[in-house]
Amino acid sequence: MALTEAQVQQLNVQFKGIPPEEIISWAVKHGQTPVVTTNFRPYEVAILHAVSEVKKDIPVVWCDTGYNTPKTYKHAEELTERLNLNIKLYVPKQTTAHRDAVMGIPQIDDPRHAEFTEQVKLEPFKRAMADFKPDVWFTNLRKGQTAHRDSLDILSLSKDGVLKVSPFYHWNDTQLDAYLKKYDLPNEHNYFDPTKVLANRECGLHS
């Protein structure tokens, strides 16, 4: 789906206030190779439920850093089964045990932090994108998460020209809680991202 920045901006005006399922349906209809990415962090169940309701067989790319909490792994298993997700798992090329022995989890000011982030998050993600070559990429980005994400919108173009679709972009936690209650969906707040020290730090995939 080839859109210009001007077209994206115009569509964002039209889509503000539109139900997520309608935005998703539009993107699925106009895209050729859509994917949805997830890390099973809090409220990820909303995008997974909404997208799979529209396109049940959509590839769900999960780049597992290897450092998730036991609760997150159990949450992922529960959602995969309940929503019948078409999970495509991508993991780092080096095992967590190996990395823990030679590097550990570097602090944000450690020169090795960039290498660590590349190993556990960016390289698996790049590999997934190269495999699927999506033209539409569904995410659960929301306004207010980071300064960079505040500069985006429901629709945005990635550096590679992929159309990122964030149907819940303007939703707050209260609205998402109501969505989860409506569809009786579980949430999981016990989540750990080893590449981020601060809660509002950008993870690297969307910057």
Present the secondary structure layout.
Layout lengths: L4 H11 L4 H11 L3 E5 L5 H11 L4 E5 L6 H13 L3 E5 L5 H7 L10 H20 L3 E3 L8 H4 L4 E3 L5 E3 L7 H10 L25
Parallel strand pairs: 1-2, 1-4, 2-3, 4-6
Antiparallel strand pairs: 5-6
Helix pairs in contact: 2-3
How would you characterize this protein structure?
The protein has 207 residues and is α/β, with parallel strands linked by helices. The chain has helices at residues 5-15, 20-30, 44-54, 70-82, 96-102, 113-132, 147-150, 173-182, and strands at residues 34-38, 59-63, 86-90, 136-138, 155-157, 163-165. It has a six-stranded mixed sheet with strand order 3-2-1-4-6-5. Helix 2 (20-30) packs across helix 3. The longest helix has 20 residues, at 113-132. The relative contact order is 0.20.
Secondary structure: number of strands: 6
Beta-strand percentage range? 5-15%
Report the average pLDDT across residues.
Answer: 91
Q: Helix content range of the residues, please?
A: 40-55%
Order of strands, main sheet, comes to: 3-2-1-4-6-5
Oligomeric state of the chains? single chain
Largest beta-sheet details: 6 strands, mixed
Radius of gyration: 17 Å
Overall geometry comes to: globular
| C-alpha termini separation | 21 Å
* Unreliable spans: 199-203
Q: What is the H-and-E element order?
A: HHEHEHEHHEHEEH
By DSSP (H or I, 4+ residues per run), the number of helices equals 8
Structural class: alpha/beta
